[in-house]
What does this fold into?
Amino acid sequence: MTTRTAPAPPAKLVVAAATGRMSSLRGATGACLALLDRDLRAFLRSRSQVYSSVLLPLMLLAILGTGVSDGLEPSSAIIRDGDYVSYLAPGMIAMTALFSSTFSSASFYRDRDNGVLRTLLASPHHARTILLGKSLAAVLIGSVQALAILGIAVLVPGIDFAWQYGWLGGAAIAVAGVLTLNLLLSGFALAVSTRIRSMQGFHLVMNLVLFPLLFLSGAFFPLDTLPDWLRILGWLNPLTYAVDLLQTSAYAASNEGFFGPWIDLAVLSALALLLFGLALGRAPKAT
It folds into this structure.
């Protein structure tokens, strides 16, 4: 008994299918870029948000950093020569990314309340495309602002960075860390915003989560000085690895007492992919 094999699809059908996929990909890319441009324009029009997100970390560096360095004289081995201002700078970069990236995701609620989200979801594009376009704006805003703080810190004479990998290598590691951190944070904010119905609830949850993460990340004080139970919580904190990466790439003269940038990048990348997958896996509600 002979078996028949299905005939191979004609070349025209294969070309048509490939052309359709390419057209669909171009359409999704165009939609993402349009949403990115729209949210960036809205952010730039909100000058108070732009100024406050940059001025707050600079004020903390000037006031808190100088006060602790001169008044308390920290003695931790992690803080080189008691220079707390230089130690604090990487933490302020991470803090800028933390608040800029996550709270930029609040535009989800503004679009929903204005009826824009309903219109976007009624378009031919998949809901994941809409979510991805909006999250890209949060990633870009948080990354640019965090890197702006890094650039300003480099130019301040009182801040002493060691650049153990060289300034070019250290800057490349810091940029990679900032981008990965913002991907993680925007994925987390997106996951929260698609599950919580009100903007007030979103801000309450974010504040409840973000402040403990920030204070237990090593951004304000070294984790090696904490009790064991707090140190363990710090090791479980994703933000710890972002601060550690920024400290080892720019501030620290060696990796002694730190995790090291390669461990940090591996942890941040894995968590960013996980959170983005969870966020994009849930369809948003228009009401």
